[in-house]
Automatic annotation (TrEMBL), chain A:
This is Sn-glycerol-3-phosphate transport system permease protein UgpE. Residues 74-267 form the ABC transmembrane type-1 domain. It comes from the Bacteria. The gene is ugpE. It comes from Agromyces rhizosphaerae. PROSITE patterns: ABC_TM1 (PS50928).
Automatic annotation (TrEMBL), chain B:
Residues 98-309 form the ABC transmembrane type-1 domain. Keywords: Cell membrane, Membrane, Transmembrane, Transmembrane helix, Transport. This is Sugar ABC transporter permease. InterPro entries: ABC_transporter_permease, MetI-like, MetI-like_sf. It comes from the Bacteria.
């Protein structure tokens, strides 16, 4: 098999060439962002642009925290993400189990209702949700970012994923447990939930990823800077004349990317399976 | 189960009150059955109650708002029937916004699926260092869309990196963000490169599940590389292709961050899309009734498209007999 004829060699070369071009488009902007985060405003606007900054301007990173409560905003994003993940699991794991294993009479209809929820774009219901939040006094709080997101978006998708997971587990465990005198609740908690752990990890990643990326919702529900989340905060680095502070903005953007990349490199498999779980068919 | 007919009927229970034997075989006895239903509904309740109380109410509410004229500042609301919908038809801006929206739906779903499939096929080869390429192509999917858009706004700005590349090639700078097809293409490119990694991963997973024997059999029958892909691999992964296509259609209606950050829909509404118009009309111009009508239109479009695709799936998608 190690024999290489000229044709496979050429096709390999072509593959590397094309893949490198794609890699440039994927990684290039991120390298550019890091480079710009160290540049002075003058150097950023220089034409033609420089790749390696002339003199590293660390003040950009300092200003990220001075112009906005960025540490607080970062913390907001992290804890909202954690709450969305927890709420998603609490809602979706029992529901997925019910749809796959318990199957009450109307399970089919309920499943269809949840499936349709996956196709309602948040943009289509943002107006009534805003009015709801405003009636409840939830404007400029994090309640809508946690509760609306989990209930309407992440939990329905997660329920779908968990249903698939429980469907693939054998029903014999259930029968065996019943014969041994275990209650339904015990069978579910002690036998099926532990077996579904890989899917649980996927669902957690999915919920975290969705929550961390949210932009429209915090843009609308949140007013004060110290309540903002990272994606919206990134757009608020402006000078007194509402011109963008490119260097500071790129520094903040670089900081926002670091934790995501760290998680990716340490938990690559879970991240990938989590993001693709919804797309895999039964 | 044959014993069922000769079974002794417990005292006090009428024989005909028992369910027919077949049903009894499928479901547990009646008392247990009710417990089962109760247990099932208890597990489903938090999710369903939440979804009905927030999602369904919101959906009904937005339809109601779309039939009203809402004055946010005065706090008044007046029923106007279908006036907001007729306004969509006569709004000259919609003659730009709707085609723009459809442009993204078509380009992102078709190009997004094809590009992801080609990349997955390339990444599925046993090449040295292929894992590095897999990771790199996936990285933009992890970065938030806002960060990705901000970096790109920087690259496509007048006299930015892209213009510098053109100058290096001896070409004149292009008006990347001044509306028209060029701006829409730039947006589509930014959106596509951001999300292509996820679709590549879905396809890679599907490709690795294709039975190797099928491919070898086709090879032995003398099929070339392209032929194997077309006649064996693509039919085998067609469920994944359909899934990605549907995800891309739903996702393509959500082109939003890139519009807000790069052009705010301008000049005029030349680079705007439906989701951005909803945001603008409702939260910038306070025209809640009209924005609600646009929301209903958005939802109806997605429902129509996904249902249509779901309907044709049986003809197109290859299902392995299982």
């Amino acid at each position: 098999m190690r024999r290489t004829n000229p044709r496979t060699l050429a096709s390999r070369g072509l593959s590397y060439l094309l893949l490198s071009a794609v890699a440039l488009v994927s990684l290039g902007p991120i390298l550019w962002m890091v480079s710009a985060s160290f540049k002075s405003p003058n150097e950023i606007l220089r034409y033609p642009p420089t790749i390696i900054p002339e003199n590293f301007k660390w003040e950009n990173y300092q200003q990220v925290f001075e112009l906005q409560p960025f540490a607080q905003q970062f913390l907001n994003s992290v804890y909202i993400m954690a709450l969305v993940a927890v709420l998603t699991i609490l809602l979706s794991v029992p529901a997925g189990y019910a749809l796959a294993r318990v199957r009450p009479v109307a399970a089919g209809v309920i499943f269809l209702v949840l499936l349709s929820a996956m196709f309602i774009p948040p943009e289509a219901t943002i107006i009534p949700l805003f009015q709801m939040a405003s009636t409840l006094g939830w404007i400029d709080t994090h309640y809508p970012l946690v509760i609306f997101t989990a209930v309407l978006t992440t939990a329905p998708i997660a329920t779908f994923v968990m249903r698939q997971a429980f469907l693939t587990l054998p029903a014999e465990f259930e029968e065996a447990a019943t014969i041994d005198g275990a209650t339904r609740l015990r069978t579910m908690l002690q036998i099926y939930f532990p077996l579904a752990r890989p899917s649980l990890a996927s669902v957690t990643v999915l919920a975290c990823w969705y929550s961390w990326n949210q932009f429209l919702e915090p843009l609308i529900y949140v007013r004060s800077p110290e309540m903002l989340t990272v994606p919206v905060a990134l757009t608020r680095y402006e000078d007194a004349f509402a011109g963008p502070l490119w260097g500071v903005q790129m520094a903040a953007t670089t900081l926002s990317v670091i934790p995501v990349l760290l998680v990716f490199f340490f938990a690559q498999r879970h991240v990938v399976s989590g993001l693709t779980a919804g797309g895999l068919k039964s | 189960m044959a014993l069922r007919t000769t079974e002794v009927v417990p005292a006090g229970e009428h024989p005909r009150a028992r369910p027919p034997a077949r049903q009894a075989a499928r479901r547990p006895a009646r008392g247990r059955d009710q417990g089962r239903n109760l247990f099932g509904y208890a597990l489903l309740a938090p999710q369903m109650v939440g979804f009905l109380a927030i999602g369904v109410v919101a959906l009904v509410w937005v339809v109601w708002l779309s039939l009203n004229h809402v004055n946010v500042l005065a706090g008044t609301q007046e029923f106007v029937g279908l006036a907001n919908y007729t306004r969509i038809l006569s709004d000259p801006n919609m003659a730009t916004v709707l085609p723009n929206t459809f442009f993204f739906v078509c380009v992102l779903s078709i190009a997004g699926t094809i590009v992801a499939l080609l990349l997955a096929l390339m990444l599925n080869q046993a090449l040295r260092g292929i894992n590095i390429y897999r990771s790199i192509i996936f990285i933009p999917a992890l970065v938030t869309m806002v960060a990705w858009s901000l970096v790109w706004s920087f690259i496509v700005q007048p006299e930015g990196l892209l213009d510098a590349v053109l100058a290096f090639l001896g070409l004149d700078p292009l008006p990347w963000l001044r509306g028209g097809w060029l701006t829409l293409s730039v947006f589509a490119f930014i959106q596509l490169t951001k999300n292509v990694g996820i679709n590549v991963m879905i396809f890679l997973g599907a490709l690795q599940a294709v039975p190797q024997e099928l491919i070898e059999a086709a090879r032995i029958d003398g099929a070339g590389r392209m032929r194997v892909v077309r006649s064996v691999v693509v039919p085998q992964i067609s469920p994944a292709i359909l899934m990605v296509f549907m995800l891309m259609i739903v996702g393509s209606f959500k082109v939003f961050e890139v519009v807000l950050i790069l052009t705010e829909g301008g000049p005029g509404v030349q680079s705007s899309v439906l989701s951005f118009e909803i945001y603008k009309q409702a939260f910038k111009l306070n025209d809640v009734g009209y924005a609600s009508a646009l929301s209903v239109l958005l939802f109806a479009l997605i429902l129509l498209l996904t249902t249509a695709i779901w309907q044709v799936r049986k003809r197109v998608v290859f299902h392995e007999a299982d």
